[in-house]
Write a structure and sequence with these properties.
Pseudouridine synthase; single chain; alpha+beta; ten-stranded mixed beta sheet; 18% helix
């Protein structure tokens, strides 16, 4: 079976990979029928030995995914994540022309994975995201009530790690991410799905910065967006897009 993960970095303690859109990180009560997970493919890359995911990417999000190769390193990385000592960077294509930069400080109610808990009141947690606009474009296509349609490419840096934080925060400022079935705009999602023959979520984790949990050296893990993401960015023709290499 072909392994869909691409190795980014490996040493005695860490394994970093690029996860494609559409692949679950691990088994979920929401997707009980699924049989393929990034976790099992990462284990295969680790010679069949256990690996420990230290953060998560939503199924439709592609990009950098980090695993620890032993429990002690996993615990150290978990503490670093909780302390805000790990910096994450994402690229997203959103509806409309987003402001040049800003901070979204908007608390979010927890979203339980177990459907049986969805009727129960869930706690509200602080959530903060910084963003920066990288490029804009305007298409001569009437999707809503205007004769043209505008889009932005933005860089997102979450400072908290709430479930679906980036997707919910961009909806909150009226610039939903293209391809987001739950928090986006259906007409725009359908336009891009029909134009490019695939309706992926236009969100990619492109960079992870941290201090190595064992050596304490600074570590920067980068992933170039996959081809399905870059294909849609063709709408920004003429822009010199600042994409990670």
């Amino acid at each position: 079976m072909l392994n869909p993960l691409t190795e980014i970095y490996r040493d005695d303690w860490l394994l970093a990979v690029h996860k494609p859109a559409g692949l679950l990180v691990h088994r979920s009560p929401i997707d009980k029928h699924e049989t393929e997970f990034a976790l099992q493919y990462a284990r295969a890359m680790n010679g069949g030995e256990h690996v420990y995911p230290v953060h998560r990417l939503d199924r439709p999000t592609s990009g950098v995914l980090l695993f620890a190769r032993d429990p002690e390193t996993a615990r150290a990385l978990g503490l670093a994540m909780m302390a805000g000592a790990v910096s994450k960077t994402y690229l997203a294509m959103v509806r409309g022309w987003a402001p040049e930069q800003g901070v979204i400080d908007h608390p979010l109610r927890e979203e339980p994975e177990d459907r049986r808990l969805k009727g129960q009141e869930q706690p509200v947690r602080e959530a903060l995201t910084r963003y920066r606009r990288l490029a804009t474009t305007e298409l001569p296509v009437a999707i809503e009530r205007y004769p043209t349609s505008r889009y932005s490419l933005v860089e997102l840096k979450p400072e908290t790690g709430r479930k679906h934080q980036l997707r919910r925060h961009m909806k909150h400022i009226n610039h939903p991410i293209i391809g987001d079935a739950n928090h986006g705009r259906g007409r725009h999602n359908r336009y891009f799905a029909e134009r490019f023959g695939q309706g992926r979520l236009m969100l990619a984790a492109t960079e992870l910065r941290l201090r190595h949990p064992v050596t304490d050296e600074p570590l920067c893990l980068k992933a170039h967006p996959e081809s399905s993401f870059l294909q849609v960015l063709a709408i920004f023709e003429g822009n010199d897009l600042p994409l990670p290499q």
